[in-house]
Design goal:
7 helices; 4-stranded mixed β-sheet; two-stranded antiparallel ribbon; alpha+beta
Length: 240
């Protein structure tokens, strides 16, 4: 895996993970501010490839801003801090690498079925922001169209399905792990005068928590392996 900085990189973009735009050259987009609209020059930030396609996927500055805007608990600001932009960049790099792996697998899902799932995801996102109107207001502030949001959600679904296929079906939690976690959480409470649930009462919850923790750990290791595998190239064109 190679990660470099360069000032002159001409790369044709493919259709990438959330927020990946198809741009050949620097373009101009409009990102309205909270007080009045301002013109912000968009720019290519990074390209990502696992070597499986002739052209890498491109991440632009707009992609980073949109990623941050779609995080429900994150306040919107006119000029995101460098740390926040790098947080978004790392997420999009990782997600793109997973998407590129997912593209290798055939899919039997129809466009109609996928569209229905995208609609459901959009409704859930609107609920996370409080309402569809609040989501739309947030999208307008960063110049994100409904079509672009649908493309983002479609890619996110593709990644989620791939990760479920690769990891969730194969995670096993043994009884000892459940018992050990129960003892960690409740052993110290047994003589405290508080009501302590039995192992059977909390078994399902503990098993679910352990499952999600194990899946997250395996995904982290998987992404690290994707970054290091031969053919992977992440090129930072314009540092943020």
């Amino acid at each position: 895996m190679m990660r470099t900085n360069t000032d002159d990189q001409s790369v044709r973009a493919g259709q990438g993970f959330p927020l990946i735009s198809c741009l050949l050259l620097t373009a101009v987009c409009f990102l309205p501010s909270f007080v009045r609209a301002q013109t912000v020059t968009d720019k290519m930030v990074a390209s990502v490839t696992n070597g499986a396609r002739a052209t890498p996927d491109l991440i632009t500055y707009s992609d980073l801003v949109w990623q941050l805007a779609l995080e429900p608990n994150r306040p919107l600001v006119d000029r995101p801090a460098s740390a926040d932009l790098n947080h978004a960049l790392r997420l999009l790099e990782d997600q793109l690498l997973i998407l590129q792996e997912a593209r290798k697998l055939p899919t039997a899902e129809t466009d109609k079925a996928l569209d229905a799932e995208v609609t459901k995801q959009r409704d859930q996102l609107a609920q996370a922001f409080g309402s569809a109107a609040l989501l739309q207001e947030r999208m307008s502030r960063v110049g994100l169209s409904s079509e672009q949001l649908d493309a983002i959600l479609r890619d996110r679904l593709t990644v989620e399905k791939y990760l479920d296929f690769r990891f969730r079906a194969f995670v096993l939690i043994n009884p000892k792990e459940i018992t050990d976690r129960y003892n960690q959480e409740y052993a110290r409470l047994r003589n405290s005068g508080r009501i302590v649930p039995t192992l059977e009462q909390v078994r399902n919850r503990i098993e679910q928590e352990l499952t999600e923790e194990k899946i997250a750990s395996e995904i982290d290791a998987f992404v690290d392996s994707l970054r290091e595998q031969p053919g992977t190239e992440i090129v930072v064109i314009s540092p943020v």
